[in-house]
């Protein structure tokens, strides 16, 4: 499972979306932004989190930071990041290529409001050198995600999105 499961998912649910593969790694927000020529905030990072006894995925803007108080209020507990091997086992994607498409196991998916700062975002596509371009609304619709406010965003992203939340903090 990896980019092939994303290709299979897109073939069924969104055949018009093309996977973009680069020769170099795009496994971090900075590398992905540089590789695709976009602002780091436009990269849609997928976080694999444990909240009490549940595993969830949160898709957020690349420069957004989880706010622990918001996470606890919205999702009912403190979030902890999963170790890389558990991420790969649960999602079918390696760290740096995790996305909400073509998952190995069904998981609850949440899209943070930080994604709405852009008309188009770039989530990974199942490998450490792939991504795709998609509107935030379509991303959420394709994966059945719930929109939530879990992150703080930088001043630049906040002013672009109308979410005047101040400086990022965790």
The run of helices and strands is HEHEEEHEHEEEHEEH
CATH topology type = YbaK protein
Mind describing the biggest β-sheet? 6 strands, mixed
Helical residue percent band: 25-40%
How many helices? The count is 6
Mean pLDDT: 91
Q: Alpha-carbon distance between the termini?
A: 32 Å
- Could you state the CATH homologous superfamily? YbaK/aminoacyl-tRNA synthetase-associated domain
Q: Output the CATH class name.
A: Alpha Beta
**What's the total number of strands?**
10
Strand content: 15-25%
Could you characterize what this model shows?
The longest helix has 11 residues, at 3-13. The strands form 3 sheets. Strands 2, 3, 5, 6, 7 and 9 form a 6-stranded mixed β-sheet that branches. A two-stranded antiparallel sheet has the order 1-8. It is globular and about 40 Å long. Residues 156-170 have low confidence and may be disordered. It is 29% helix and 23% strand. It has a single domain (3-161), classed as YbaK protein (Alpha-Beta Complex). The protein is α/β, with parallel strands linked by helices.
